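pls design
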């Protein structure tokens, strides 16, 4: 009867090299490509004619005591238009982080309309960049991700939000939600996802404000 061979490798023989673990870094667009998307979104609105602060922006910015003169902390106890949170005439429109950006700009740079418009253009550029990043994560690095970011950058659906000063609330909410989704997706490819998920929850909360 033949002896059964041992499945163990002979002593002193080289041990097999374990396979490398899969990469935890998803394929994302290059920095130059993302910069091009942001630049496209910004320069698309340079052709807008300069205009003064008009319509709802007058009440939200130049006539808003919370933006112009009260302590910055007052944005958290007032509605978007400057009425106290418990006032019977308030609108219950609560956007403290948007009002906070107005207040910082008004006190640092004055009420020049160009300041508010340039800020909105920069926020739109950042949002277009986030669209490209999210598309890259969902499409596994497909070049169509950059096309999605470029389309968002120049699509006329965003014109009212970017051209109108009070439209900043839409831009900021969109950017916060996109950032939350990106962090949530990245958390799934990380060994310790809790910090990423915590960041996603923080951005979600910021978007609600």
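designed seq:
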């Amino acid at each position: 009867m033949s002896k059964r061979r041992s499945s163990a490798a002979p002593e002193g023989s080289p041990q097999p090299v374990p396979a490398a673990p899969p990469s935890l870094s998803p394929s994302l667009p290059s920095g130059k490509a993302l910069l091009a998307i942001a630049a496209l979104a910004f320069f698309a609105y340079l052709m807008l004619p300069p205009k003064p602060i008009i319509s709802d922006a007058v009440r939200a910015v130049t006539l808003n005591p919370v933006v112009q003169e009260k302590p910055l902390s007052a944005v958290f106890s007032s509605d978007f238009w400057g009425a106290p949170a418990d006032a019977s005439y308030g609108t219950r429109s609560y956007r403290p982080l948007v009002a906070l950006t107005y207040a910082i700009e008004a006190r640092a740079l004055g009420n020049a309309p160009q300041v508010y418009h340039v800020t909105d253009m920069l926020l739109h550029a950042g949002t277009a960049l986030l669209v490209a990043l999210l598309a890259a994560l969902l499409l596994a690095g497909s070049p169509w991700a950059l096309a999605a970011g470029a389309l968002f950058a120049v699509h006329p659906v965003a014109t009212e939000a970017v051209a109108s000063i009070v439209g900043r609330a839409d831009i900021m909410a969109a950017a916060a939600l996109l950032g939350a989704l990106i962090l949530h997706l990245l958390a799934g490819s990380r060994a310790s996802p809790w910090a990423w998920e915590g960041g996603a929850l923080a951005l979600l909360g910021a978007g609600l404000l």
